[in-house]
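A common beginner's mistake is to predict each chain separately and then try to dock the pieces by hand. The better habit, illustrated here, is to supply every component at once so that their relative placement is modeled jointly.
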Amino acid sequence: MTQEKMQVDKHIFQRFDEELTALLDRLLEMGGLVEKQVADAVRALIEGDTELASAVLANEEQVDDLDVEIDQMCVRLIAIRQPTASDLRLVLGISKSVLDLERIGDEANKIAKLTLQLAEQMDAPIEIGYVSVRRLGQKVNDMLKSVLDAYGNFDAEATVGIARNDDQLDEEYQNSTGELIAHMKEHSSSIASLLNIVWALRALERIGDHVENLAEHLIYTVKGIDVRHHNLAEIQHQIDRK
Amino acid sequence: MTQEKMQVDKHIFQRFDEELTALLDRLLEMGGLVEKQVADAVRALIEGDTELASAVLANEEQVDDLDVEIDQMCVRLIAIRQPTASDLRLVLGISKSVLDLERIGDEANKIAKLTLQLAEQMDAPIEIGYVSVRRLGQKVNDMLKSVLDAYGNFDAEATVGIARNDDQLDEEYQNSTGELIAHMKEHSSSIASLLNIVWALRALERIGDHVENLAEHLIYTVKGIDVRHHNLAEIQHQIDRK
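With all components supplied together, the output reads:
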């Protein structure tokens, strides 16, 4: 290989690495934005802050723009650079992660809309509902932060704990919903607003599912294991064998 | 180009086309399976058929297997054949469609689980709920059938009507849920089973969203337009301009 040819190759690979890094940076930027949307939506609901809820809805466009932009970056990268093996896995993993981040953004929007509905409902809100939203909201935000940190550090091991957290979240969601249903039976005039709290809890539970998907995409990207439809013990076993 | 070289190239392209066709066939197979899962889950709920509900849950594994298999086919195709332009769009579009089909399968499972819960609940079911499930279930199944036919014929135009149907579905979902909430206030002893009907309606509404996603993936695949986050009029305008 001539000196000149080697220079050109090196240049191509450097540019490819730069593009991959730029892609991951954009994903983390989108992640940070979505994380803020979730935190703001939960705070808006708990504090009955309709102004903050409207701000969350107004930011939707920004999330959507990033979604389309990152997706186009992925397609361009595959078409032009034709990555193979781990680089291809990275691009495809990011392409799927974008979908989950976008849907987390959708769930944050739903919570913001519920906040506006709750503000218009005349029946007295019941404290127990807000306590559950605060608790599940905190948990979901911690999970989302962890998974984004794991992406930033490219650390697949860090995500095993996240899947375990999602199981706890599902259990808390079931318990909280059960409590609220019991309350409905005794306070039938508050059913509409209690149901809105249930919808908000369900949105949080779904965000937890998307965080788990994000963790799976990262494991796939880093380790090349497809972990969907396996339980935690199997995943741990597969990671240990790598 | 020598005669021999041309033969080899032709052979390579033929194999690539065969692989793309096989990929699309697998997607349609998965679509057919998921369509049956949704129809069976809705019928199980309406008829209180716990045996059929259990059969839906047992078939989940088959859907999951196809999901992983098609996804691996997509990755292999990109890595080995390095498709560009419309072929790459097709593979990436299929890779995203698989995610939506898998999630439609998840929603069918939820409806099956709700059927089992409803069978254990002692409070009398309310007819109005079943009427709504039947109506929305029929609509969702028609939409799913249409979008799979559109995939089979590679007909992006056929999907514009689907997005319109999803708007109608959302409206019917809102009305039906409103009716059920009104009933809850008057029949507080039936709240738990009425809520299970509401969850089933919500699962159907989400399936409608996934059908709309499938339509968007197909438009992207065929036309190269990213139609997410645009309204119907804009999409029609963009298709007309192509």
